[in-house]
Write a structure and sequence with these properties.
This protein is α/β, with parallel strands linked by helices. The protein contains 14 helices and six strands. The protein has a six-stranded parallel sheet, with helices on both faces. The longest helix is centred in the C-terminal third of the chain and has 24 residues.
């Protein structure tokens, strides 16, 4: 965890947190705002951080990355492990460095655990154990749930039965510390800078239309080839990349489980379900100012975001 204390002035400088479901247009709005607010963008996307996933993660195009500094984009090997605690540590360091340059920080993304690491903080638990996580990742999710029910009934009650990431983390904490993860709750360390939380939302049917169009665009841009290269390199099946929507379905296709058309259908279906889960999760966050972007341009939405940020932060130019 980043341990330096920001100066009194820096501690009053806000960080813009831009959230929302996939395909809502967060990245484009964040880049537009950054160019006009003298800001740099920090990605809070659990998959964009990996190299060689440019198409499948819908990474901002090269011209945008050239104009606007982006952090935590394409910096890790696809087989690496990365989690919310690592993100929180890196985010604090990067925000401090951005402020030291006299610029502002925008955190943008849809990875719910990464966002929660900022909005609700992290408890002082043990770091991730890659070996233990690999072991747990290979077990059926029903077994993980049953073990957690025995070890920590309170955590089992609060963690969704299908949330493998949180189930694994809860068991990891129990095994590493001998204490239930629920005993750490309430000891979270707050983020050092005030967050201006803005959420983007879209008409449900329009969101589905965008998801389908984006999947078609990804296939046209070479998603199958990108996934095949990862498959042939032997990305571990328990890795985050192998569990990522788009790559997961294509890996199953390469293994002969179903044809390419079925893989595409499954990608669309999984992405739609993921967007619904994201929206439900972010709706539960307190203090988010929601903007309906349906039928609006990036400039229109970006202008509203800038006005909101300025209203909350008198230091923003």
């Amino acid at each position: 965890m980043f341990t330096e204390t920001p100066s009194a002035l820096e501690a009053r400088i806000t960080v813009l947190l831009l959230v929302g479901p996939t395909a809502v247009g967060k990245s484009a709005v964040a880049a537009w705002v950054a160019e006009r607010a003298g800001a740099e963008v920090i990605s809070a996307d659990a998959r964009t951080i990996f190299r060689d996933l440019a198409v499948g993660t819908d990474r901002p195009p090269p011209d945008v990355l050239a104009r606007v500094p982006h952090h935590l984009v394409g910096v890790l090997d696809p087989g690496a492990c990365y989690d919310a605690a690592m993100f929180r540590r890196d985010c604090e360091r990067i925000v401090s460095e951005i402020h030291a340059r006299g610029r502002r920080a925008i955190v943008v993304g849809g990875s719910t655990l990464y966002v929660r690491a900022l909005t609700r903080g992290l408890f002082p638990g043990p770091p991730g154990d890659p070996t233990l996580r690999r072991e747990l990742a290979q077990r059926p999710i029903e077994e993980l749930r049953a073990e957690l029910v025995r070890a920590d009934p309170e955590a089992a009650r609060r963690i969704h039965p299908g949330d493998r990431v949180r189930l694994v983390r809860a068991l990891e904490v129990c095994r590493k510390t001998g204490r239930p993860i629920s005993s750490f709750w309430g000891q979270e360390t707050p983020f050092p800078w005030p967050l201006v939380k803005v959420g983007l939302v879209l008409d449900r049917q329009e969101m589905y239309r965008r998801i389908e169009a984006r999947v078609e665009r990804m296939f046209a841009q070479g998603l199958v080839g990108e996934a095949r290269q990862l498959w042939e390199r032997g990305v571990p099946p328990e890795s985050q990349v192998a569990r990522t929507i788009g790559y997961r379905e294509l890996f199953q296709h390469f293994a002969g489980e179903f044809d390419l058309a079925e893989a595409k259908r499954r990608i669309v279906r999984s992405t739609r379900a993921y967007a619904r889960r994201q929206l439900a999760w972010f709706r539960a966050e307190e203090g988010v100012h929601w903007i309906d972007v349906t039928g609006r341009t990036v400039a229109d939405v970006g202008g509203e975001v800038v006005r909101l940020w300025r209203d909350r932060d008198g230091h923003l130019q």
